[in-house]
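Methods, example record. To illustrate the input and output format used throughout this study, we show the complete record for ABC transporter ATP-binding protein. The sequence lines were provided to the predictor; the line carrying structure tokens was produced by it.
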Amino acid sequence: MTTTTTSPVLTATGVTMRFGGLTAVQAVDLDVHPGEIVGLIGPNGAGKTTFFNCLTGLYVPTEGSVAYRGTVLPPKPHLVTQAGIARTFQNIRLFANMTVLENVLVGRHTRTKEGLWSALLRGPGFKRAEAASKARAMELLEFTGLADKADHLSRNLPYGEQRKLEIARALASDPGLLLLDEPTAGMNPQETRATEELVFAIRDLGTAVLVIEHDMRFIFNLCDRVAVLVQGQKLVEGTSEVVQSDERVIAAYLGTPFEGAPGAEEAAEVEAAEAGATTGATGGATQDEAQRGTTARTEDGQ
Ligand SMILES: Nc1ncnc2c1ncn2[C@@H]1O[C@H](COP(=O)(O)OP(=O)(O)OP(=O)(O)O)[C@@H](O)[C@H]1O
Ligand SMILES: [Mg+2]
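The corresponding predicted structure is encoded as:
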């Protein structure tokens, strides 16, 4: 196998995930290259988190493969982490009754070589490894701005800091690729800007990033490339400019068919009739909704 420095850190090929009759992710190809920040966007229920779950071995894809630096990964979370992919969760998953530092140390365990006996006997090798792990964990807390909270129980952290702690814990496994699932959800604008800086800093230290977000300003500021998932399929992929100006993306977010799509003519007629019936402008509101990604979707994901 040839692995060059320019080969992708992530190669997802034809990833498909079906739940019974529902195809949540359909034949998605996606590469992430070293040094890149790639965005994954799409309306609620588009399959973004399911795709992450396929990448990290939490789900075994119905079809397709996931490779890290050219090597196909077995769909087992601990092997995926060991290979070099770390993630955070849309629904924060911290050990609530452990301290901030302990949470990061848990994330470190895949990179410590000390075995069970060494840990039980607490020999010099174990103590050295433990000290090194602590030092690294503290470094990561400094990096994420949580060092002064090292001894706090994680459940006592404000929401925004819990999200940062998830990032610190993910970084503890020294990943070559970090997957972030809605890292700014629930954050205020200031916290969101700080997270943006943090993601740039992570990339600058050599970890490629694939990030799911509904905050479009965050995504378009941050990402070198953006892929758009709609109903489980990759609809568009390109630079922020390309994605922003693609009418299919806007249509997908607004839930309206785009020109040439099935039902477009009928939708245009309804729209025209509605415009005639009401005097209020809806364009600004829907545009704003699209920016925040808060548009509703149909329950069946169609
Ligand atoms: N374990 C599961 N079993 C059955 N259906 C599932 C499962 N996980 C996800 N789905 C379905 O797959 C589809 C995609 O869900 P997913 O959570 O991946 O969307 P998403 O793009 O992350 O949405 P959001 O932006 O709301 O987080 C949805 O219809 C969801 O109900
Ligand atoms: Mg999701």
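Annotations derived from this record:
Residues 280-302 have pLDDT under 50 and may be disordered.
The pocket of adenosine-5'-triphosphate (ligand 1) is lined by residues 19, 22, 24, 42, 44-50, 90, 301 (CB under 6 Å).
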